[in-house]
Design goal:
Blueprint (H helix, E strand, L loop, with lengths): L2 E6 L5 H7 L7 E5 L2 H14 L8 E5 H10 L16 E2 L25 E2 L4 E3 L3 H6 L3 H14 L2 E5 L6 H12 L4 E6 L18 E2 L2 E2 L2 H6 L6 E7 L1 E2 L4 H11 L4 E2 L6 E4 L3 H9 L3 E5 L11 E3 L8 E7 L19 H11 L2 E8 L1 H8 L1
Parallel strand pairs: 1-8, 1-11, 2-3, 2-7, 4-6, 7-8, 12-13, 14-18, 15-16, 15-17, 17-18
Antiparallel strand pairs: 5-6, 9-10
Helix pairs in contact: 1-2, 9-11
Length: 362
């Protein structure tokens, strides 16, 4: 059995890969974070299997996997007695520890830390923590059960795993009883807001790790595939070349679209793009305050594809379009956020400085 990480780039076909990598007839479990991504995977599987997804293939969200496949089956073996949950609470945010102490905070040595006593449902953000605090024998039960149920587990968007979720993923990937293939794009981590306060695995102290540093701290038993998904199907080569030059990210294209990339410094041209509803405007934040449509925050565009895109730079990135710009001045998080914005277009990409945008918006 082997754990493998497939490093991908934006638009390289991660969903297609995990829906087509395995042999027919195998018992497969595909995991992803959102219901939308579950449906995206289902659609790829429908294409592969002419509309009918075989019964030996399961596609579930990560929280559903943790609850239904890992936690619920071993409830009677947990360190807490008489545990019989009613599901997962995905809407209630549990009270966190604080200073001064919050009287409503429940310590992690008590069941109320993990289960909302008002509805008897697990807090979705604390299920993996409960698993990680169990005895080794509990994990062995989980491993043995998974070995019987599935041949391979595919994990979508591994870069979204943090804290205890990442620790659990590594347990799965180091297992000698389960085949686990994780697919994701390092340069899309930490783009969206997260409730996870620990930096694991992408930070050391307050500093974000580079891709090379991250790969260096992976378990030695985990295999790396750095070639299968290095080519973007979405992003034209002109834009890939620009990203390589400006952000030092190794990304190439197999798109048949030639594409265009334009740096807009003329206010009138920006005004035209702002008024053009076929052009999606990507701003760093506060998109709701922008009257021109369509407009979206950089982070919220993650996973999307548009034909025509205007990326509005932040004030801190006003030198980004200069020939001698060096990305070493940026944190890895800033590089990732900009990378996501720059890789949304499959054809026309326009970039303007914030001050030019402000003048056009007046």
């Amino acid at each position: 059995m082997v754990g493998k990480i497939v490093l991908a780039r934006a638009g390289s076909g991660k969903t297609y890969y995990i829906a087509n990598d395995f042999e027919e007839g195998k018992s497969i479990l595909l995991l992803t974070f959102t219901n939308q991504n579950v449906e995206n995977i289902r659609e790829e599987l429908r294409v592969r299997f002419q509309g009918n997804i075989p019964h030996n293939i399961n596609i579930v969200t990560y929280s559903s996997f943790v609850y239904s496949w890992l936690l619920r089956p071993v409830e009677k073996c947990l360190t807490f007695t008489n545990v019989k949950s009613s599901g997962v609470d995905i809407s209630t945010k549990p009270v966190e520890s604080s200073y001064p102490s919050n009287p409503f905070y429940v310590k992690d040595t008590e069941l109320g830390h993990y289960i909302n006593e008002n509805n008897n449902r697990y807090y979705s953000s604390r299920m993996t923590k409960l698993i990680m605090k169990q005895k080794k024998s509990i994990w062995e039960i989980i491993e043995n059960r998974l070995e019987i149920l599935v041949d391979t587990i595919y994990v979508d968007e591994f870069q979204d795993f943090k804290g205890t979720d990442y620790e659990l993923l590594m347990l799965l990937m180091k297992s000698k009883k389960i085949d686990v293939v994780s697919v994701g794009d390092f340069y899309q981590h930490s783009v969206a807001m997260s409730s996870e306060r620990r930096g694991l695995p992408f930070k050391k102290g307050k500093r974000y790790l580079s891709e090379e540093e991250f790969l260096d701290v992976l378990p030695k038993s985990v295999k790396l595939d750095e070639q299968s998904l290095i080519f973007s199907r979405r992003v034209p080569q002109k834009i890939c070349d620009f990203i390589q030059k400006k952000l030092s990210i190794n990304i190439d294209s197999i798109s048949e679209t030639e594409g265009t990339l334009s740096i807009i410094t003329n206010v009138e041209e920006v005004v035209c793009l702002l008024n053009d509803e076929t052009c999606v405007k990507l701003v760093y934040m506060n998109s709701r305050k922008v009257s021109f449509k369509p407009v979206i925050n950089w982070s919220y565009s993650k996973g999307d594809t548009y034909s025509r895109v205007l990326v509005v730079l932040t004030d801190n990135l006003d030198k980004f379009i200069q020939e001698d710009f060096n990305c070493s001045s940026l944190s890895q998080k800033s590089i990732n956020e900009l990378y996501v914005a720059l890789t949304r277009s499959n054809d026309e990409l326009y970039i303007c400085r914030k001050d030019v945008f402000n003048k056009a918006y007046e």
